[in-house]
Amino acid sequence: RFFEFLRELKKLDVTLLVFTKGHVIGDDAEARKWNSQYGISTGKELVEEITKVNASIMLGFNSFDLCTQDEMVGGMEGYSLKRNRAPELLAEAGLNKHNPSRLCLAVLPVTCGNYSEILEIYEWARVRNISVIACPTMVSGKGSNEGAWQKITPQASVLIDLYAEIYEFNLEKGIQTIEQLEEKEFHIMPRQRAATKSPVGGTSRFQVKSCGVPATT
Question: What distance in Å separates the CA atoms of residue 144 and residue 33, rounded to the nearest whole number?
Answer without folding.
Answer: 31
